[in-house]
Amino acid sequence: MSKFMGLDIGDATIGIAISDENKIIALPRENYFRKSSKKDIDHMIDLCLEHNIEKIISGMPYNMNGSLGPQGEKTKKFIRLLEKKIKFSDRISLEIELIEWDERLTSIAAEKAMIKADLSREKRKKNIDKIASTFILQGYLDYINGGK
Fold it and tell me: Domain holding 8: CATH number?
């Protein structure tokens, strides 16, 4: 069965979450430390193949007023590159849909959840992107499942 993947794309890391096969629960996967565009894309393609990914939900960092700032532009550029590489990859036979998802306040929600779980500042810093990607993916899963 296929799964969905959630991404929280940053300059230094990409937080990654993967759904369960029923597409109900988002599970944190990893904080991927970025190397180069080619290596970053190759890693995403490897994960798509490993987990039979059907959709990639990428957080889009809109400003609070709904505009797209510099980080949003970088994110869009990476998403377009990933989409192009997936489309023309000879390794992927299925079509993978890429969806942009409003990620406003997901990092704050992730931080609050980790504080509530009594994680140290160091552990929170190491896991923030992975947890934020989980919030992004879970928000999308809740949306498509009618909030159930």
Answer: 3.30.420.140
DSSP 60: E
> How many domains does the chain fold into?
1
By C-alpha distance, which of 143, 104, 107 is closest to 125?
Answer: 107
Q: Which residue has the tokens 């709904």?
A: 66
- Treating both helix axes as pointing N-terminal to C-terminal, what angle do 37-51 and 70-87 enclose, rounded to 10 degrees? 60
Can you say whether residue 42 is alpha, beta or left, with left for phi > 0 and alpha for psi between -120 and 50 degrees? alpha
Domain extent at residue 73: 3-144
- Dihedral through CA 120, CA 47, CA 44, CA 91, nearest 10? 170
pTM comes to 0.87
* Per-chain mean pLDDT for the chain: 88
Interval 41-58: pLDDT, tens: 999 999 999 999 999 999
